[in-house]
Amino acid sequence: MNHPVIRPEPTALEQAAIGQRAHAALEAASAGLAPDIVFRLSQSREKALALHASKRRAPIALFQLVGFPGTGQNWLRDVITPALGIVLLAAVATFAGQYAANANHSEVIEIDSALLTDDLPIDAYLDRGFAAWVAHQGGV
Amino acid sequence: MRTLLYAISILLAFTAAVPAQAGEQPDWQHLSAAQRDVLAPLGGDWNHLDDDRRRKWLELAQRFPSMTPDERARMRARMSYWSSLTPEERVEARERYKRLQAMPPEQREALARKWEAYESLSREERKRFNDSQRPVEKAPGAAAATPVRK
After folding, report:
1. pLDDT tens across B89-140, in order?
2. Is B97 an interface residue toward A (CB < 8 Å)?
3. What does the domain layout of chain A look like in residue ranges?
């Protein structure tokens, strides 16, 4: 009774040597292949390489989507930076508007206070003819 | 990113430095006794004033203690008249005040005397100068009658 021979698993070095021998044999044999077979082999190779590349890109694309460090991109930063810029501009605009309103309010209070306590009565500032008369007198 | 955070921090600091817009202002019965004393001429109308005008009067009232007796008397005498003017009239008075402030000090001081001289002009002469100026545009619904002169 023949028992199957259990061979040990080839080492990485042996696997590489086998691959190189197979490659050399295939290269030598391919010289005599018909053109249509060469074409079909070429297409199959391209498909296999494309499939391999897409499998490798998938996790990287996922990492890029969530901004995983080391993937060269960070969508969080790309989104937040312009958003912060917009918020900053809005805040500057609000601040400028508030500052202008407060400055105007302070000026109004200052003038109202003067009008209410001035030597000249309020009517002098309301009378259009008085200003014209003062100008006519050479006062303004 | 760090620059943005610095910029926002500085902005927030500036914003905190600017006084916030006042909100609702108190009704007459919620004013302090001192405020009611200063603003007594407005007592009857106070609760009908909007928050912005209440806020202005309260700020003016804060200045009252630092005024001279003459200034206090003038302010008390003019408060209800000033409050009765239309917003357009108040704006026009402020603009004329600013223009007259641009005069040389010696001419500015003479304005009170000039006003007396102007008041002594005949009605026709005053009308002639009055008509030479562009009329004040009244706001829709504003009181048509000229307020009592003060």
Report:
1. 999 999 989 988 888 888 888 888 888 899 888 888 888 888 887 655 444 4
2. yes
3. 8-73, 74-140
B56 contact residues in A (CB cutoff 8 A): 105, 108-109, 112
Q: What distance in Å separates the CA atoms of residue B75 and residue A116, rounded to the nearest whole number? A: 5
Among A104, A108, A128, the residue to mutate for chain B (most B Cβ within 10 A): A128
Q: Domain extents for chain B?
A: 25-131
Amino acid at the residue A102 = N
Spatial CA neighbour of A103 closest among B123, B90, B18: B18
- How far is CA A98 from each of CA A84, A92, B21, B58, rounded to the nearest angstrom? 21, 10, 8, 20
Predicted TM-score of the model (pTM): 0.57
Pick from A88, A118, A140: which is nearest to B8 by CB? Answer: A88
Q: Enter the ipTM.
A: 0.72
| Chain B partners within 8 Å of A77 (Cβ) | 1
Chain B residues near residue A126 by CB distance under 8 angstroms: 85, 89, 92-93, 96
Q: What is the DSSP secondary-structure string of chain B? A: -HHHHHHHHHHHHHHHHSPPPP-PPPPGGGS-HHHHHHTGGGTTTGGGS-HHHHHHHHHHHHHGGGS-HHHHHHHHHHHHHHHHS-HHHHHHHHHHHHHHHTS-HHHHHTHHHHHHHHHTS-HHHHHHHHHTSPPPPPPTT---SPPPP-
Contacts of A132 in chain B (CB under 8 A): 129-130, 132-133
